[in-house]
Amino acid sequence: MSSTPGPSLDVAAMRKNYKCDQDAFEENHLVSLDPMKQFGDWFEEATKCPSILEANAMCLATCTKDGKPSARMLLLKGFGPDGFRFFTNHESRKGRELETNPFAAIVFYWEPLNRQVRIEGRVAKLPRKDSEEYFHSRPRSSQIGAVISHQSSVIPNREFLRKKNAEMEEVYKGQDVPIPDYWGGYVLEPETMEFWQGQTNRLHDRIMFQRQGQTQVADSTLVHRAQGTWVYKRLSP
User: Fold this and answer.
1) Number of C-beta neighbours around residue 113 at 10 A
2) What residue ranges in the chain does DSSP mark as E strands?
3) Mean pLDDT throughout 102-131?
4) In the Cβ-directed half-sphere of 95, how many Cα atoms lie within 13 Å?
5) pTM higher than the cut 0.85
6) Quick check: 215 pLDDT over 80?
7) pLDDT tens, 79-98?
8) Rounded to 5 degrees, what are φ and ψ at 55?
């Protein structure tokens, strides 16, 4: 039996320089002790970076009730005091997993800035009114796509989608596309938010915010009171 040839590239040797120590992300560089405002600052920088085409692209990780994880890329569609919002098919794999295990993790990675943000928390469905409002703000082709796609179900081929798309274009010709019952939004309310910035020597900067309520901070030399119910601390890389 012939062995499968290995990759032509030496993957183990692939390495990129990040920032130097003079550009370290330190506690006094936080623009706010409210992690949502700190996220907003980094997000704005990412949107202004010409090398980042989709600053709102994020990896969403969900998990089954018995602990089997899955992850995929999708787009952030809003953030604020309530959390991070995204929209999808409730009957998709992620939708089914969130139904039985309503906790998830999000990662934003902005490679040109050598930054990532990790977020974990509980997920809840958005009010139907919010989902309808966003659905009808989407391009018409995307609305029809949501009607056609029973996400994560098995289909015979690409032609199947083309035919369904043509059918629905005709069905909804000259009228509004109704939002499907199985489609809508979610909001992830963060319980932890970590701000990571890469260092060439791999002594990366990691500042994590965590909800702690109003209980007293156990060790104020390591854990610091932030705004509201948040505390923050530096993690070893």
Assistant:
1) 18
2) 57-63, 69-75, 78-80, 83-89, 103-110, 115-125, 183-197, 205-211, 223-225, 230-234
3) 98
4) 19
5) yes
6) no
7) 999 999 999 999 999 999 99
8) -65, -25
Residue 202 is a catalytic residue: yes
What span, in angstroms and rounded, lies between the C-alpha atoms of 156 and 176?
A: 29
For 5, which DSSP code? Answer: P
Tokens 């032609």, located at residue: 159
Mean pLDDT of 40-44: 98
Q: Tell me the three-class secondary structure of 64-105, residue by residue.
A: CCCCCEEEEEEECCEEECCEEEEEEECCCHHHHHHHHCCEEE
Q: Is the pLDDT assigned to residue 187 strictly greater than 80?
A: yes
| Average of per-residue pLDDT values in the chain | 94
Q: Which two tokens stand for residue 149?
A: 């796609």
Q: Which strand (E) or helix (H) includes residue 44?
A: helix 35-48
Predicted pLDDT of residue 16: 84
Tokens (6 digits) for 97:
């997993």
Cβ contact 149:89 at 8 Å: yes
Q: Print burial letters for 53-76: b (CB count within 10 Å at least 16), e (below 16).
A: eebbebebbbbeeeeeeeeeeeeb
| Catalytic annotation, pick one of 202, 206, 225, 234 | 202
Phi, psi torsion values for 178, nearest 5 degrees: -75, 145
pLDDT tens, position by position, 150-176: 899 999 999 999 999 999 999 999 999
Contact present, 85 and 76 (Cβ < 8 Å): yes
